[in-house]
Write a structure and sequence with these properties.
Residues 248-432 form the Dyp-type peroxidase C-terminal domain. Its cofactor is heme b. One of its GO terms (cellular component) is cell envelope. Helices cover 17% and strands 18% of the residues. By secondary structure, it is an alpha+beta fold. The protein has one domain (73-132, 141-445). The strands form 2 sheets. Strands 3, 4, 5, 6, 7, 8, 9, 10, 11 and 12 form a 10-stranded antiparallel beta sheet that branches. Strands 1-2 form a two-stranded antiparallel ribbon. A hairpin with a 6-residue loop joins strand 10 and strand 11 (384-394). Helix 2 (106-123) packs antiparallel against helix 3 (209-222). Residues 1-68 have low confidence and may be disordered. Bound molecules: the ligand C=CC1=C(C)c2cc3[nH]c(cc4nc(cc5[nH]c(cc1n2)c(C)c5CCC(=O)O)C(CCC(=O)O)=C4C)c(C)c3C=C and fe (ii) ion.
Length: 448
């Protein structure tokens, strides 16, 4: 097989020490027209002077502080103090990938992280791996399927799993307490090895399915010899809302999902529950966030035989409007104390909204960013293999995801219709600030 000799997969030679490290991100791709200046924040902006297009999701085609943009041309800044794809208004499509590192050379791993940063910077501008097509007798630098498509608000978010912090790279002393294994969590027993864990993860989100596929495919391709794909997941529609003004989408059970989510404009909640701060025991994670993913299969066929009243009792909300069963409209606060004529709580004591609420979890909240998924049909049962690819971000999974999941795991009425079949926990470091920087640079270059 010919080895592609292109910028995206062949970085600058290794440097042996942090002070001498130089990454292709700035070098080879720079010549190919890498990325313009580092821009702070993750505003969506237009790059082409085209009229605003209709949005099939009913969203406004602009966000606060940004101009009206064509969905295809819309871009989310890649460079910034924080990684995009966390508080960014949630895009419609997901491709998630988990990889295992195969090299034992820490420099090689860092070069991959630099190569990924350089590629992500280009992809998020709608650009291919390189401006050059490559040599006629070699594989093209870029796989090509996103040519002419545009960036579609692509974000690429990278995380590190606990398994990366072993003896291979001398990182054992840099494992944050928050990334230590969660111990026993409800749902674990049905998790399958082939959908679970991984040294690295890539979360690619955009408003076009081919754009997210292209990003992950090329990043996995660039990892050849350094890391291999462990498992991956496509999500075909968002099942949460993270942006101010975004409509609340529906999950595959037909319910509005994301109503009480943390929204990006709630800066106090974002600061309190999402971003890691000075308190961390590992300063390389200061400004980052922890991603917990759970692939949750739904028993769709049995759910579809359940009557509406029971479905609404399970969630504690009306199916059509999303309003709490205690009345009002979608965003009306839930009255957990209200009792009905029978003296029983209107919101069942084991309903999903009660058990997942901050009131039931010592005030804890999560930023949810999940996607509806389908893997087609289960060949063994003939049933639909579909559900929710649950993603949430937080400051500390032990104090947040684990607490909520422990509460849900005991008695949540929803549990009859779902099974956790995969997932993992990853530390997403702060953002890549400029060309030449790479994902998790501080992890490798600073003493804790
Ligand atoms: C451990 C965390 C959670 C898992 C796992 C989870 C699975 C799950 N959720 C739904 C559907 C809905 N969830 C809703 C609310 C909600 N869920 C969680 C956490 C987990 N859900 C939280 C923290 C909340 C918000 C609680 C609050 O602040 O009030 C809702 C109600 C609408 C909403 O607020 O989003 C729905 C619907 C499914 C289908 C599912 C697994 C397949
Ligand atoms: Fe939920």
């Amino acid at each position: 097989m010919t080895t592609p000799d292109e910028p995206g997969t062949q970085p600058a030679p290794p440097a042996s020490g942090p002070s001498r490290r130089r990454f292709l991100g700035g070098a080879a791709l720079g010549a190919a027209g890498l990325v313009g200046g580092a821009a702070a924040g993750y505003g969506i902006r237009a790059t082409q002077d085209r009229p605003a297009a209709d949005t099939d999701s009913g969203e406004p085609s602009s966000v606060a502080g940004a101009v009206s943009v064509d969905k295809a041309a819309a871009q989310v800044d890649f460079y910034g103090e924080r990684q995009a794809g966390i508080t960014t208004p949630q895009q419609e499509r997901l491709m998630f990938a988990s990889l295992d590192v195969t090299t034992t050379d820490a420099d090689e791993l860092q070069r991959l992280l630099g190569r990924w940063a350089a590629m992500a910077a280009r992809f998020t501008q709608g650009k291919p791996v390189s401006d050059s097509p490559g040599k006629p007798l070699a594989p093209p630098f870029d796989t090509g399927e996103a040519e002419d498509l545009g960036a579609y608000s692509l974000t690429v978010t990278v995380g590190f799993g606990a398994s990366l912090f072993d003896d291979r790279f001398g990182l054992a002393g840099k494992l944050p307490a928050a990334l230590k294994p969660l111990g026993t969590v409800p749902g674990d027993t049905t998790m399958r090895e082939n959908f679970t864990g991984g040294d690295l993860c890539i979360q690619a989100c955009a408003d076009d399915p081919q754009v997210v596929f292209h990003a992950v495919r090329n990043m996995v391709r660039a990892a050849r010899g350094t890391a291999t794909l462990r498992w991956s997941q496509l999500g075909f529609g968002r099942a949460s809302a993270t942006g101010a003004g975004q409509t609340t989408p529906r999950n595959l059970m037909g319910f509005k999902d994301g109503t009480n989510n943390i929204h990006a404009d709630d800066t106090a909640a974002v600061q309190e529950f999402v971003w890691v701060g000075d308190e961390t025991d590992q300063q390389w994670m200061n400004g980052g966030s922890y991603l917990v993913a759970r692939k949750i299969r739904m028993e769709i066929e049995s759910w579809d035989t359940d009557d509406l009243e029971d479905q609404e009792k399970i969630f504690g909300r009306e199916k059509s409007s999303g309003a709490p069963l205690t009345g009002g409209e979608e965003f009306t606060a839930i009255d957990f104390n209200r009792t009905g004529d029978d003296g029983e709580p209107v919101i069942d004591i084991n309903s999903h909204v009660r058990l997942s609420s901050p009131e039931a979890n010592g005030g804890v909240r999560l930023l949810r960013r999940g996607y509806n998924y389908t893997d087609g049909q289960d060949p063994d049962t003939g049933k639909l293999a579909a559900g929710l690819f649950f993603i949430c971000y937080q400051r500390d999974p032990h104090a947040q995801f684990k607490v909520v999941q422990a509460r849900l795991g005991s008695t949540d009425l929803l549990n009859e219709y779902i099974a956790h079949i995969g997932g993992g926990v990853w530390a997403c470091p702060p953002g890549v600030t400029a060309a030449g920087d790479w994902f998790g640079k501080r992890l490798f270059t600073e003493n804790s």
